[in-house]
Amino acid sequence: MSVKGQIGRRDFIRAAAALGIGGGIWKTAAREPGSMVWQLDPQQCVQCGRCATHCVLNPSAVKCVHSYPICGYCDLCGGYLQPGAKKRDTGAENELCPVSAITRTFIEPPFFQYTIDEDLCVGCAKCVKGCGLFGNGSLYLQIKQDLCVHCNECAIARACPAEAFQRIPAEQAYLLKTRPEGGPAQT
Amino acid sequence: MKGLKRFVSVLAVLVVFSCDGEAQFRFPMPEFESDYRQPEMYTPPPGRTNDLMDVAVLAGALGVGAWLVLKRRSRPGVFLLTVFSLIYFGFWRQGCVCPIGSMQNVAEGILDANVVVPMAIVAFFLLPLLFALFFGRVFCAGVCPLGALQELVAVRPVALPQAADRVLGLIPYLYLGVTVLSVSTGAGFLICRYDPFVGFFRQGASFNLLMAGGILLLLGLYIGRPYCRYLCPYGVLLGWMSRFAKWHARITPTECIQCRLCEDACPYGAINTPAPEEAPISPREGTRRLGKTLFLAPVIVALGALTGMMAHDVLARLHPTIQLAERVAAEERGYFSDVTLESEAFRASRTTLAELYAAAHAVRADFKRKSPWLGAFLGLVVAWKLVALSIKRKRVDYEVDRVACVSCARCFPYCPVEDEDAKTQKHKA
Amino acid sequence: MPKPKNIKREFVPHQAAGRVAMGVATVAGVFSLIVCVLLVTNYLQVRATAPLDNPELLQLRKTLAETPGMDEALVKHIRALDLLSRKAFFTSQAYLRMGGRLLLAGAAVFLVAFRLAARWNPKPPAPQAGPDEGAYWSTIARSKELVSGIAVILVLVSLTAAYLTPSGLPSPAQVSMLSQERGSEAPPSAASVAADFPTWEEMQRQWPSFRGPGGIGVAHYTTAPTQWDADTGTGIRWKVEVPSPGFNSPVVWDDRLFISGATEHVREVYCYDTDTGALLWRQALPPFPGTPEPPPQVSEDTGYAAPTMALHGEYAFVIFGTGDLACFDFDGSLVWGRNIGVPDNHYGHSSSLIALEDKLFVQFDDKRAPRLLALDAATGAEVWVATRKDISWASPACVRTPFGFELILASERDVDAYAPDTGTLLWTQPGLDGEVAPSPTFSGNTVFVANEYAMATAVRLSAPDNAVKSEIAWQWEDSLPEVASPTSSDEYFYIATSMGEVVCLDVERGEMVWTYEFDQGFYSSPIRVGERVYVTDTEGTTHIFGTGPAFELIGAPQLSEPVFATPAYLDGRIYVRTQQHLVCLEENGGN
Questions:
Q1: Which domain, by its residues, includes B294?
Q2: Where is the domain boundary, C120, C137, C163?
Q3: Closest CA to B193 of B172, B173, B208, B177
Q4: Among A103, B121, B322, C272, which residue's Cβ finds the most Cβ atoms within 10 Å?
Q5: C339 shares a domain with C406
Q6: Backbone angles phi, psi at C161, to 5 degrees
Q7: C519-573 confidence digits (pLDDT tens)
């Protein structure tokens, strides 16, 4: 086998490989590409608490968000107060949030506004569960996209028992609950 | 069931106003009398995801790498590139998405017509392979953040015995095969799941992975690039490309003078020594053995396929559906007194037991179809290695092993032969 | 062998600098190691103590919730512990972040110093004399052996793994058998049991479910006592105390009466002799796979035992707020049982069970996936599942229309009918609203549902072209029930409200025939027994009136105890579950 012949064979294989890769890739990527991000569907969430523990980040990139338009502004808030709380105040024995990340502000009788402090929130979903059980479900979890590091395989998605995580287009990076104007509440 | 609604009756009036079947929205939106305005929800957009900027940096780094290795033959240059890549792709871009992981997205895109793979990810997968096809594994040399981290910690590398190196070198093929099988069956992205170093870049990962990464790095002080050589599945593809590289890094800039100074230069076992002219066995015996190995090759492949099929049950446990179904089945039989979150969530869902089992059986059938291919692939790799070992090489010089060489340029300083071109250029200067 | 003329820059040693670098590397290495150990210790500690889920704190909170009034000392204790936990959590987080950075810096310094040390103590190339030909060949031979050896080991390991860990997944054919295995020691075959199940006619003579046969609030028997007195004991055949609480109503089959009761810790079924009131047996449910521990939170107005049991020949079915569904035979042995989960709604399991032929029907109103389950009564295996649109507190009724059996379910918006055999939705009509607790009733070919704050709706069924057609016959919007379900006679529907109003409506046109206001409200549902309607108010007074076109009060005997459950009316007897007792009333009972 001559040196020349060997080079010719190598060139051929190289060209074939380049074409093969290129073709395969073209076929794969020919369709409209767009960045996708992870997000969790609050409708499917079962509040298991794994968002707090399974994110590669510490604290988790999943935080509780508050959809004010569907909040009832209740005094007796299932997301803020311990079940069976004796008083509706900020005492530790009454507060549900383990890190005190929810602020309760009096608006007017009988309404209170609840605000999440994201720096404190660990995404444990305790308030989400409370709000879902006895309230409007206006507190729910979302991946904060500015914190998320966009893992190729989301560690929480894999641990989620309810398969609530999905990839969605980066332009619409949140799955929010809303209440349409005038009509009944929908999601 | 009587008297259940006493406490609700207080709220019932409110419920009526909301006129609403959705049980979650129990209370109507209050009508504020004060001029209270609802705060906006804070929903920050994603920071930069894998965009074309990264692709440009990748292409640039690959180009610079090829130039440094092939043209400049500069070990310090490659070293600096390594530091840059570690900082940019590693600590700045936090290691995602990397070409190693992009392999899975591309495989998924090819196997599943519904999956759209963004262009940037395809480019991440493609560019290092194309560069390897022309310039060798310059991606490994100084662009890959995982390689960079290991390259930097390889301070006192010692060479492993060649035979051990070869055997451990089989693991990446296994990893590659299992990864593709996992992607094709929807069991998830193993490479990302078990990436040992990305945790350092993000300053966070599971405890076990951080520990594994730490141990690999400590090991990497003395055994050069353990992940690259004995685990990395993308390295397998790069090796295949690099075998046919048009221009590949060479130990000597011009001609080998057989000084043997480079013999211990490569910590990665990528320098092939000259083959002795005389074999201990006669050429006829050598040919006979080669023939026997070639004849055995299909048998090995078939055996591999058979093993793959027999082991499909075990492999299928990679899939979350199988894990759930087996867990639920065991619970149903009373093997466990407790439940997992998964089985609890399943029982609360509207999926029936029969549906779960049916889904699990479908997944398993998928594995049964695909596992033989994994086995056959591994059989082919083993057969190929054996054949390659049986072929008598004609090699008079010290040469890089194009498949194993990561173009790190460590061996360049060991060669006493001066680069004539470089010398003339220096003189001119 | 030609020797290099001069040593390259890379291989010039600087021993003094090398020693310094090595010293720095050692210090940095030791530092990093210490930081690393501290980090790991901190991590393991935090993981072990889980400050945010501090069990002691949870326990204290629970104690506080259970103690009446404010225990100031306890509150103080909770606050202190809570502060401690939060401190522990945030400090450890800060430690982890800080430690991570220190470790990174330490490792970087170590690496740079170690690299420099290596650089200044280089190992210049030192080739040994002459290439070793023997080593070349032996390496190749060893490699071959090792590669083949590894291949063989891989094969053996795969096969052993496959052999040693057989899949626990049942084959599709085994699934149904599996559900039978869960049953008693000698599981009867499904076919033979199915043949044993009572017919519709046999069921009419019993009180097999909530609000009687078919669950429509109409008794088969026409006689029931009209006079009794709790104070003198007149008309009371027997009276026993109920062991544990539950809002469920008694069900009776021949001489057996069943009720269930549950607390947070125990879920029990009680079987009584209808003649003597003797407790024949009581059985606690074992935990099944999936039984939530601790039990789910339930509203105190639902409790853990709100749904009424269903009886079917020799079988008694029971469901609890934990989602535990079980089947006992009349001797108290568990035939089958499983946990079907806790529906995600704000009241828990509240709908009663009902059985027909070989199936048991369970309304599982999870707000995200409300559904109606049909289970094989003999084994508990799922036969079909029908998806529902909305949830309700109400219970299914099973009626025989001129066009076949139908399961009638109320939901928050509609009234729906399903085919008992297949789960097919036969028809659906709007006509409800709000949170619906009253269950449907039925007369001739008209289904009747009603709910407070919404309306009452009569749905008429016809089959003009052999296909069943449903249409809203009329609606009524004035006095409406909140909890108690309506009852019916051939001509009239009767509504009892929580305000104490009773309304009689004409079946044909929905016109009000008469209305009467009692002092107390009704949670217990009215039941028609022959020519009389019985309804017990929340104070325990039973109002008995005639079914005629004018209001005619026949009697108002008292039990003087709160009653929420609906009594069972059988041949000449009434079985009432009051808040504390189970009472059997009979014309000549007691003194």
A1: 283-390
A2: C120
A3: B208
A4: B121
A5: yes
A6: -60, -45
A7: 888 999 999 999 999 999 988 999 999 998 889 999 999 888 899 899 999 988 9
Please give chain A's pLDDT, 187 residues, in tens.
344 445 577 788 888 888 887 776 676 655 556 678 899 999 889 898 899 989 988 889 999 999 988 888 888 888 998 887 778 888 888 889 999 899 999 888 888 999 999 999 999 999 999 888 878 889 999 999 999 988 888 999 999 988 899 988 888 889 988 764 443 433 3
Sign of CA dihedral B24, B30, B31, B32: negative
Report the alpha-carbon distance of residue C305 to residue C328 in Å, rounded.
16
The one-letter amino acid at C301? D
Q: For chain A, how many structural domains are there in total? A: 1
Distance between C65 CA and the closest CA of chain A, angstroms? 5
Identify whether A2 is part of a domain: no
User: Angle CA(B106)–CA(B109)–CA(B114) in degrees, nearest 5?
Assistant: 160
Whether residues C409 and C303 share a domain: the answer is yes
pLDDT of residue C583: 93
Q: How far apart are CA B380 and CA B292, in angstroms?
A: 15
Contacts (Cβ under 8 Å, ≥6 apart) of B388: none
Instruction: Tell me the sheet residues that pair with C545.
Output: C533, C553
In sequence order, which residues have a C-beta less than 8 Å from that of residue C588 and are 6 or more positions away?
C235
Q: What is the pLDDT of residues C155-202, one digit of tens each?
A: 999 999 988 887 777 776 665 554 444 433 333 333 334 446 888 888
Q: What is residue A36's three-state secondary structure?
A: strand
Closest CA to A119 of A138, A103, A107: A103
Q: Which two tokens stand for residue B230?
A: 């004995």
Q: Which residue in A70, A115, A149 is closest to B25 by CB distance?
A: A70
Task: Mutation target for B interface from A2, A150, A152: give the one with most B CBs within 10 A.
Answer: A152
Instruction: Give the nearest chain C residue to B355 (CA atoms).
Output: C172
Residues B265 and B324 in one domain: no
Residues B334 and B417 in one domain: no
Among candidate residues B200, B268, B188, B271, the one with its CA nearest the CA of residue B235: B268
Among C56, C82, C87, C390, which would you mutate to test the A interface (most chain A Cβ atoms within 10 Å of its Cβ)?
A: C82
Number of domains in chain B: 2
What integer pLDDT is reported at residue C453 of this predicted model?
A: 78
Contact, B297 vs B391, CB < 8 A?
Answer: no
Whether A93 is covered by a domain: the verdict is yes
Q: Is C283 helix (H, G, I), strand (E, B) or coil?
A: strand
Whether B81 maps to a domain, the answer reads yes
Structure tokens at C81: 């512990």
Residue A16 domain-assigned (yes or no): no
Number of residues assigned to chain B:
429
| Shared domain check, B187 and B170 | yes
Total count of domains within chain C: 2
Domain that holds residue C245: 175-590
Residues 6+ apart with CB under 8 A from C384: C373, C374, C422, C423
Contact B29 A22 (CB under 8 A): no
A chain contacts of residue C82, beta-carbon cutoff 8 Å: 92-93
Tokens at C231, concatenated? 């104070």
Q: How far apart are CA B324 and CA B82, in angstroms?
A: 43
Amino acid (one-letter) located at A98 = P
* DSSP states of A125-136: -HHHHHHHHHS-
Cα of first residue to Cα of last residue in chain A, in angstroms, is: 72
Q: What is the mean pLDDT of residues C200-216?
A: 91
- Chain C residue nearest residue A83, CA to CA: C65
Q: Do the beta carbons of residue A63 and residue B44 sit within 8 Å?
A: no
pLDDT (tens digit per residue) in C350-398: 899 999 888 999 999 888 788 899 998 888 888 888 888 888 889 999 9
Residues of chain B with pLDDT under 50: 1-23
To the nearest whole Å, the CA of A18 is away from the closest chain B CA by 7
| Predicted ipTM beyond 0.95 | no
Its pTM surpasses 0.80 = no
